[in-house]
Amino acid sequence: MTERRASHPTTLPRRVVVGGYSLDPSGDDPEAGTGLTVLDLHERPADGPAYVRVGHEALPSPSWVVPHPTDPWLVSVSETAPSMLACTRLENDGRLTVLDRRATGGDGGCHLALTADGRQVLVAHYGSGTVETFALDEAGRLTGPLDRFSSSAPLGPDPVRQDAPHAHQVVLDPHRSDEVLVCDLGTDRVHRLLLHDDGRLTEAAPALVLPPGFGPRHLVVADDTLVVAGELSSELWVGRRELGGWRPTQVIGTTRRTGDVTASDPAPGDAPAPSALRFSDDLVVVATRGPDTVSVFRLDPAESTVAFVTEVACGGRHPRDVVVADGLVWVADQESDEVVVLDLGAITAEAGRGLEAAAAVLRFPTPRPACLVLLDVRS
């Protein structure tokens, strides 16, 4: 049941899709995990808004989910070995129907991207360190992998986390639609690849080399500014687009609680680890596991630098994903089995108060959330 904590002037989405980790990674036991869950907004005059489950599909550990740009489909990747790519139809009433699924050629698929026309899919695999491409036709059928990229670059200095290439995210540069940016935690690099119409991947330019032990996890491109979150160093690397590459302008910590760890750290004793990164208007929002906080930075687009604004508790444990929309920050708290929604305006207005928990607009339970998609219902 949804718990409402504070009133707010913003508009809530009519539908939320949650990709959740399965307790049985094989997917053989449909009762052992969450898969894809669809929740719709219900207005209750006495109690305020609530999100109610209207659809479910027991896919194994869909840790990243992307809506198709033109069709009522969800494309997801399962963080399993081997990984699985699925295209699922989302009906107006919230029901889910799998149109196609196929095993990828890699392990630990953790991120994917769709081209603007929705006909090509790119998948990043953390486990095998590879990036693969697939075709998606007008009926939702998948073909591939069409090509595979694997880095041969030198590994980073962390013998445990950087024992091999680990592709953690794949992003299409919004200003160069055929260029693919790949965060490789294992090699401290952001690879720059060229995506061809037939699905081939070739090197577009030399990789962006980050400081040793940085461990790039996620990035955002804001016009001519690139912001990369380092999971291992708990830092943001900021750069400016220049002469066909990226010139470094700044490195800044993601949290004011560096070195403070809690039970929700991915590895006890490690430094806090930024787990999700989003950009909205002129704000960069970062979720950090360990201290379990949300940090807000303000971007100066002229200088391609960011300034720390505030940091607040995320309202749960082990934030896995964060989405910013309509003045709200949605946090998927994996280990506390809930989604917590914070008021971004209230967070920034109270900057400087420290790490007190921000008042939640609302929160609702959902098992082991890994990824959030906010949608309006199509008419």
Per the principal axes of the C-alpha atoms, what is the gross shape? globular
CATH domain fold name of one domain:
Methylamine Dehydrogenase, Chain H
Instruction: Let me know the CATH homologous superfamily of one domain.
Output: YVTN repeat-like/Quinoprotein amine dehydrogenase
Instruction: Tell me the CATH architecture of one domain.
Output: 7 Propeller
Text of the CATH class of one domain: Mainly Beta
Order of helices and strands: EEEEEEEEEEEEEEEEEEEEEEEEEEEHEE
Please provide the count of β strands: 29
Q: What structural class is derived from the secondary structure elements?
A: mainly beta
Tally of contiguous helical segments: 1
Helical residue percent?
A: under 10%
Percent of residues in beta strands?
over 45%
Give average pLDDT, whole number: 91
* Distance separating the two termini: 26 Å
The main β sheet shows up as: 5 strands, antiparallel
- CA radius of gyration: 20 Å
Strands of the largest sheet, in order across it? 1-28-27-26-25
- Unreliable parts: 4-9, 258-270
EC number: 3.1.1.31
Enzyme class: hydrolase
Family: Belongs to the cycloisomerase 2 family.
Organism: Microlunatus antarcticus
